[in-house]
Amino acid sequence: MVKLASVAVLGLALLVSAGCGGGAKKADAPKTPDKITLKFGHLADEKNTWHLGALKFKEIVEKNSKGRIEVKVYPNEQLGKEKDLVTSIQNGTADIGIFGETLTTFGASKTILMATPYLLRDSAQLHKVAGGEIGKEIEAQVLEKVKIRPIAYFERGPRDLTSNRPIKTPDDLKGLKVRVPNVPLFVDTWQALGAKPIPMAFSEVFTSLQQGAIDGQENPYALIKSANFFEVQKYLNKTSHVRSWIYVCIGEKRFKSLPEDLQKVILDAAKEMQKYENELFVKDEKALETFLKSKMTFVDVDMAAFQAKSKDAVLAKFDADQKALYNKIVNMK
Question: Strand 36-41 and strand 69-74: pairing?
Fold first, then answer.
């Protein structure tokens, strides 16, 4: 009994001691949430306006989230080629990317209107389409089919054909092996024009041109310069066959996992990024043309002949929804 009593007294003393200590002890501070890291990948180099736009997005997001979000930007396909990056975002191993008409291969068939040959007249019409109801319709399909959310768009300069022989008419394309993106419409269009289109990842193009595996490629000024294609191509043929835009997209699952206040930070930063990149783009196009004219020979082409020969190939592959959007754009004033 004495032993039990002693144990009881000791236990009571410990309880009293703990109670006294508890009065002086502060409550545990709330746990600081882990910093959220967003991986933002794209195919362009560090001097490209896409990359500069991505860096502006990073700056604004990190500032306005007060450090709760860190954005890591990976240029030069460091997170994978375009299609691989889409898959990575869907799987959650990457978060944000820059994508164009390649999204057609993921079921977003309306994105082909983002890069349809000879559809858009000029930059003003492009912004009217991309920033209006037609753009919203395309964005909604990207979200539904690909599960990535467009949060901004960038205008791209007209796509022109580069080669080592001058191309003035479609007849000059006979036998020319031209690298094209992995988009069926591009393949069909260049076949109709008389070339031999070869789908290929962007990162493989320079070496393939250098080694003679392909004879030409088609891209806007910015990518022709940043990829140094002028080192292995003599002519820039002013086909201007595609005026297009691309989307900056975030994985929808990732976006929805963020608190509402951080979702707003992302969307607001995306608007600022779009505005900033477009200002850079407009200034850059003139400078790029001046630079490329010092490195390559510019060739004027028979635009009407290219347009006429490609139209049937374009419309032949369009489904009803694509044709409806095509006609809406063609009939815009």
Answer: parallel
Which of the four pLDDT bands, split at 50, 70 and 90, describes residue 9? very low
- Rounded Cα gap, residues 140 and 146, in angstroms: 10
Give the whole-angstrom CA distance, residue 91 versus residue 147.
10
Q: Measure the CA–CA gap between 160 and 308, rounded to whole angstroms.
A: 17
d(Cα 97, Cα 248) in Å, to the nearest integer? 6
> Which one, of 172, 212, 79, 239, lies nearest residue 224 by Cα?
239
**What does the alpha-carbon distance between residue 60 and residue 124 come to, in Å, rounded to a whole number?**
28
Which amino acid type is present at position 281?
A: F
Task: Delineate the domains of the chain, giving CATH numbers in brackets.
Answer: 36-330 (3.40.190.170)
Helix, strand, coil fractions of the chain, as percent rounded to 5: 55, 20, 25
Whole-number Å distance between alpha carbons of 103 and 268: 24
Query: Six-digit token pair at 191?
Result: 């076949």
How far does Cα 194 stand from its chain's mean position? 30
Q: For the whole model, what pTM was predicted?
A: 0.77
Encoded tokens for 233? 């191509």
Total residue count of the chain as it appears in this document: 333
Using the structure block, give the residue that is written with the tokens 């996992």: 257
79-110 burial, b for 16+ CB within 10 Å, e for fewer?
bbbbbebbebbbeeebbbbbbbbbbbbbebbb
pLDDT at 317: 83
Q: Where are the alpha helices (DSSP H) in 107-259?
A: 123-130, 133-146, 184-193, 205-211, 221-226, 252-257
**In this model, does residue 13 exceed pLDDT 70?**
no
DSSP annotation of 223: H
- 286 burial class (0-12, 13-18, 19+ CB within 10 angstroms)? exposed
The 10 Å CB-count burial string (b at 16+, else e) for 186-214 is: bbbbbebbebebbebbbeebbebbeeeeb
Please give the radius of gyration of the chain, using alpha carbons only, rounded to the nearest integer. Answer: 27
Phi and psi torsions of 307, nearest 5°: -65, -45
